[in-house]
Amino acid sequence: MNEEKALSLLSDSGLRITRPRRLLLKAVLAMQTHFSAGDVLAALTKMEKGHGFDLVTLYRNLPVFEEVGIICRADFSDDMIRYTLAHAGHDHHHHHIVCRSCQKVAPVDLCLLEVQQKALVKMGFKDVRHRLEFSGICRACS
Asked: Exposed (0-12), middle (13-18) or buried (19+): which is 66, by Cβ within 10 Å?
């Protein structure tokens, strides 16, 4: 996802491109891995040279970015909301494996459930989703 594509997604959804939204977008697009609102806030604080960023704007816009397809929610069953950048077409999904010792997260790009999901759609179900959770002990911890 690049800035031009993200701005296009926002404007195509009828959203204004305000200065705070542009700053938030820049911080989100700079994230290299899964991130929380706190991670974004830390990046914004650095960008604003310590002047801070309005938390309401942050927490209001992350779900907006998710809705328009800039970011995707990543659930690791630990009660912390994390996000990742959406891929082109934002229909790609992947699973994760989480180390039970150090909490390191790694992507699992293979999904064997897509065939079953397509079969459920053929049965007449709409907006079919699934979640598959892996955990283990990573090489560094074992």
From this structure: middle
